[in-house]
Each structure stands twice: as C-alpha cells, then as structure tokens.
Amino acid sequence: VTPLRRVVVVGASLAGLRAVEALRRRGFDGEVVVLGGEPHLPYDRPPLSKEVLAGKWDAERTRFRPPENYDELDSEWRLGTRAAGLDLEGRAVLLQGGERVPFDGLVLSCGAAPRRLRGAEGLDGVHVLRSLDDALAIRGALDGGARVAVVGAGFIGAEVAATCRGRGLDVSLIETLPAPLARVLPPALGERMAALHRDHGVRLSCGVPVAGLEGRGRVERVRLADGSAVEADCVVVGIGVVPETGWLEGSGLALEDGVLCDERCAASAPGVVAAGDVARWRNPRLGETLRLEHWTNATEMAEAAAARLLAGESGAAAYLEPYAPVPYFWSDQYGVKIQLAGRAEPGDEMHVVDGSLAEERFAVLFSRAGRLVGALGLGRPRLVMRFKRLLREGASLEEALAAE
Ligand SMILES: Cc1cc2nc3c(=O)[nH]c(=O)nc-3n(C[C@H](O)[C@H](O)[C@H](O)COP(=O)(O)OP(=O)(O)OC[C@H]3O[C@@H](n4cnc5c(N)ncnc54)[C@H](O)[C@@H]3O)c2cc1C
Q1: Choosing a second label site near 128 at 20 to 30 A (CA), which of 30, 173, 214, 279?
Q2: Average per-residue pLDDT in the chain?
Q3: Which of 63, 184, 244, 253 to mutate to test ligand 1, by most ligand atoms within 8 A of the CB atom?
Q4: Do β-strands 210-214 and 221-224 pair in parallel, antiparallel, or remain unpaired?
Q5: Closest CA to 49 of 120, 154, 145
Q6: How far apart are CA 163 and CA 291, in angstroms?
Q7: Confidence class of residue 307 from pLDDT cuts 50, 70 and 90?
Q8: Which of 99, 277, 340 for a ligand 1 pocket mutation test, highest count of atoms within 8 Å of Cβ?
Q9: Looking at ligand 1, which residue's alpha carbon is closest to its atom 29?
Q10: 54/48 Cα distance (integer angstroms)
Q11: In whole angstroms, how far apart are CA 287 and each of 21, 23, 262, 273?
C-alpha cells in the first residue's frame, strides 16, 4: 500500500475546497494540489441566481475565503487548469498538452456542467447559469432592461425568473413538463409553484416543448412545439446539468451518470474518492444509489470523502460511518425560502401540517406506507429543519405529526 504523500483534487469549488480543509483539519501533512477549470478561487454558486443576478452582490462577495486565507491550507491551487485524462495505473492526472500530475490520493470534485439547447450555438443572448462568469454575463443583459425568457422551471430556472421579476423585468418561464419542479414534487405542489410564479407576474407556459430558438445573430424568440412563440432578447436555459465525467471516460474508473462510489465515497480504484455534484454513491439510508446536486451534500460529502481517503486501503476504512445523509435543498424565490428535506415521489402521500397550499407559507410531509420520507416548506425554515432531524432519526409519520 502506497503511503499517502500527495493528494490531487480535481475541481476547485465547494466540494474541492471542503475536501482540502477536511484533509488539513484531520492532520494530513503531505502535499495538496488542486486543479481548477475556472480562473477563480472557489466561490459560492447559490447567490449567482439570487443576489448576484439581482445586482445586490458583486463578484467578490461570493468568495468562500479571501485569497490571503489560503496560506493556512498550505496547498497549490492551479486555476484555469483542466484535467484532461486519468492514468489510473500510472497514478497521474493528465493535463491538456501532456503534463502528468502524479498523485497517491485523488479527490474528484469536478461537479456538473449545464445542458445546452441544441441550435443555440452562434446566437447571441442565449445563456446558461452555472458559473460566476455566466451570472455576470446575464446580469449585463438584465442591466440593459432585457425581455427575459427562461427555458426550464427547475430550481435554477425558477430562481432566475423570480430574480428577474424582482428587478421589474418582463419574464416568461417555459417548462416542457406539466408544472414547475414536476420531477421532484407531486402535481398538487407543482400547481402551487405555478401559481407562485403567476401571482408574481411571470408568464408561465407549461406542457409544451421548445421547438427551437430563432433570431438573426441575436436571439429574438423561443419557438414552441405548438407553433406559438415567446419574444425575448435574453434567454436563460436551465434544463439541468450533466456530471463532468467526460475526461474520465476510458480511464477504467466506473462511471454511471457520475463517478460511481461505494457507501464511503470510494470510487472503483484504490485511493480515489469523489464528492459533490459529480459523485453517485450508495446511500444506505435510502437503499439506492443517487447523485445529488445540492450545496449541503457537496459540503458533507467532501468531509466524508477526505476521511475515506485518509483511512487508506487498510482495514480502518471499514470502521468509518457510511455516508448516509438525508438529502436537503433550499431555494429562494420571491422572498420565500423553499426547502425540501428527504424526498417526495409522485406516488407518495402528502400531509399538509402547517398553513395551507392556498397560502405563501406552509409545510407538508410526505409518507410512503406509513414511513416519513420527506418534508417541504415554503417560508417555514425552522419546521423543515425539525422534520429533517426526524428524518435522520428514522421517525414514523405519526411521530412527525405529533412533533409538529
Ligand atoms: C446558480 C446556482 C444556484 C444554486 N442554488 C442552490 C441553492 O439555492 N441550494 C442548494 O442546495 N444548491 C444550489 N445550487 C447547487 C450547488 O451550488 C452545487 O450543488 C454545488 O456547487 C456543487 O459543488 P461541487 O463542488 O460538487 O461542484 P461545482 O460547484 O460544479 O464545482 C466543480 C468545479 O470543478 C471544475 N471542473 C470541472 N471539470 C474539471 C476538470 N476536468 N478539471 C478541473 N476542474 C474541473 C468546474 O469548473 C467547477 O469549478 C446552485 C447551483 C447554481 C449553479
């Protein structure tokens, strides 16, 4: 077994930074090299669709640490440097141009990249929102008073629509599915989200796919499959992300819509772990493999992955707790905090436990065969955190209803 002297981290964002911090906090005193595809030191993404687009925060405020606070991590940050390949046998990450970056331990924290609409290439005014540079480009368009069309009413699209309305702009939100967030919420709640957008003056179109974008040089409209069109000068496409695993293909590492990991964040090769949006792992609490695209998961999984890396290939790893979080996500829209702890699936039973769906503030629980599986709140942060604790403790629906 090779002693761990040099750790390479691929991806200089939330999970990458938290992994480096955890390695140092846990006493690792070897070399740490971080490869970051973006030119920036790690910054926080949630404010991009909220405070940054709103024009309330400048770019610097999104930084996790000011540059001078990196000294204490005693690590080398190679920014603007993308990993292009992985030589598992030779224990090295390959860079474009052929440079080899050797490692004993490897943390994969390279996140996910936004899906793009086909046919949008070569049209100005069409954006995705994943990076700080994306956010600043969109903000520039909003400053000019653009008419905005958002394609995709997932959390990011919904937040962009809400922030743009907050700036008083003309906003259309276009969703192929029957309701916003239809992938993560049952239909009654999807309807509730639709009403939230409409109440705030967004023109919402659901259930009709986008046929294409039209314009000469610049985007002028979004054409829908039923022939109708939405005029816009700025189109923000929020149709999901794909894990950044292209550079790992052919390396021999098991990939399956993400880097496939075991219950302790170990990938399929010795000394390789993954964390954050790029990692798919077996969550023993849920009894399934999943990949989460949530801030809290990137933070917590980085800690677990660092612990796993330090445990090495000795028997010590078996004594680590499996990584078994309750999934958790929040979103801010129209001044309301929306939080989902655990999960909700279309067939789950729904119980309104606080307020009513007709209001802008309420909480609901989800259960499956009497088992509590999730909790959603609008403007009910403390209640959702209480239910999150109960989910972690494996409480039944009765216990949750009694605690409320
Ligand atoms: C606009 C926006 C708003 C969000 N709002 C919320 C929210 O309200 N609540 C919530 O829970 N979550 C939210 N999220 C999700 C949250 O930000 C992510 O879950 C989190 O950023 C994941 O962190 P990560 O480090 O795993 O990946 P990322 O943050 O995606 O970082 C991966 C990094 O790796 C780099 N990289 C990729 N490939 C390579 C390579 N080959 N070599 C080197 N570097 C590479 C990328 O450039 C990137 O910098 C939001 C995300 C966005 C984009």
Answers
A1: 279
A2: 96
A3: 244
A4: antiparallel
A5: 154
A6: 27
A7: very high
A8: 277
A9: 13
A10: 9
A11: 29, 28, 12, 20
Q: Which atom of ligand 1 is nearest to the CA of 247?
A: 41
Q: For ligand 1, atom 8, name the residue with the nearest CA.
A: 331
Expressed in angstroms and rounded, the spacing between residue 40 Cα and the centre of ligand 1 is: 13
How many angstroms separate the alpha carbon of residue 315 from the centre of ligand 1?
A: 33
Q: How far is the CA of 39 from the centre of ligand 1 (A)?
A: 14
| Distance, C-alpha 279 to centroid of its chain | 11
What are residue 99's DSSP bridge partners?
none
Residue 238's nearest CA partner among 346, 163, 313 is 163
Q: Which residues line ligand 1 (CB under 6 A)?
A: 10-16, 35-38, 45-46, 48-49, 82-83, 109-112, 129-130, 156, 244, 247, 276-277, 293-296, 298, 329-331
Bridge partners, 150 (sequence order): 173, 236
Residue range 330-352, pLDDT digits in tens: 999 999 999 999 998 878 999 99
Cα separation, 61 vs 51, whole angstroms: 10
Structure tokens at 349: 């039973």
Q: Where are the beta strands (DSSP E) in 184-295?
A: 203-206, 210-214, 221-224, 229-231, 234-237, 241-243, 259-261, 272-274, 279-283, 288-290
Residue with tokens 């929040």: 330
Residues 92 and 182: their CA atoms lie apart, in Å, by 42
In whole angstroms, what is the distance from residue 283 CA to residue 46 CA? Answer: 24
Q: How far is CA 163 from CA 49, 152, 158, 368, 381, in A?
A: 7, 15, 9, 35, 20
